[in-house]
Amino acid sequence: MKVVDHLKNANGKTLFTIEILPPLKGENIKTLFSNIDPLMEFKPPFIDVTYHREEYVYRKKEGGLLEKLSTRKRPGTVGICAAIQNHYKVDTVPHIICGGFNREETENALIDLHFLGVDNVLVLQGDAIKSESKFVAEPDGHKYASELLDQVVKMNKGLYLDDELEHAAPTDFCIGVAGYPEKHFNAPNLKTDMKYLKLKVDMGAEYIVTQMFFDNSKYFDFVDKCREAGITVPIIPGIKPLTAKAQLTVLPKIFNIDLPEELTEEADKCTDNKSLKEVGIEWCIKQSRELMKKGVPTLHYYTMGKSDPIYRIAKELF
How confident is residue 55, by pLDDT bands cut at 50, 70 and 90? Predict the structure, then answer.
């Protein structure tokens, strides 16, 4: 079933949904299932599965020459989506990214997902690889999420890269895109960011999932600006609890977000990660309750491979 249909069928009730990471290369999928199992108590109608592009390592060869090798530490998004749907009978939302794919590879991945009965995709640009200062598209790949979105929309119309195909079967993906309450780090300002978000909705995006935020007012302001811009699709809040002291500096740097003063003041009092985790969970419960009162379509939790904090939060709310 499509994400938008799940939201519609909820009849105004706030749902519980999660995003998971594929296991590290070499790990068993049972580890992933052991993290998902406790959260099934709260009946998530769909589960997002992230995609992680290639990274590069350099290995020294004889004579001192360096060999550049491509590697992925978290492969298997398509297979994991199939496994989750088979194991839990729950819909999945694979992330489809620009980085690491050319257009042909993107088309083949979408065909595989369509054959597996996956009805939803979240279209993203993806991150730059660590060895590069900015995002670089693959040869014959997509530079922007809007370009990738256009390819998915065309496939939904039966338009494939080979324009000589006759009677090509259209796919039927429900397409989500990302929204940034504190603006995308590449955008010069929120108004410009909103312009491109509106473009993606006009092109065919059916819902928006936000970057994580810790100040609900940022989300509410973002929704208001979207509605003023004529964006009427559902806007799903993405939420993550703080679980380690290092995140106080890492999260703002990586995700270009601010942490509220009240939260950081409480976090600064913590002497270890255990006490910080308790502060993070309490803050997230408070956030979630306020969002639920405002009638958000679903509380979408970024698990980051750790189900225990999310379980404790959901237990208080659902």
Answer: low
Beta bridge partners of 179: 210
pLDDT in tens, 275-287: 999 999 999 999 9
For residue 106, the enclosing domain spans: 3-317
Spatial separation of the C-alpha atoms in residues 121 and 141, rounded to whole Å: 18
**Domains in the chain: how many in total?**
1
Task: Give CA angle at 284 (229, 278), nearest 5°.
Answer: 160
Beta strands at 55-60 and 66-71: parallel, antiparallel or unpaired: antiparallel
152-210 pLDDT, tens digit per residue, is: 999 999 999 998 888 889 999 999 999 999 988 888 888 899 999 999 999 999 999 99
**Average predicted confidence (pLDDT) for the chain:** 92
Q: The domain that contains 106 carries what CATH number? A: 3.20.20.220
Asked whether residue 60 carries a pLDDT value surpassing 70, the answer given is: no
How do 174-179 and 66-71 pair as beta strands?
A: unpaired
End-to-end CA distance of the chain: 22
Of 184, 273, 252, the closest CA to residue 222 belongs to: 184
pTM of the model: 0.92
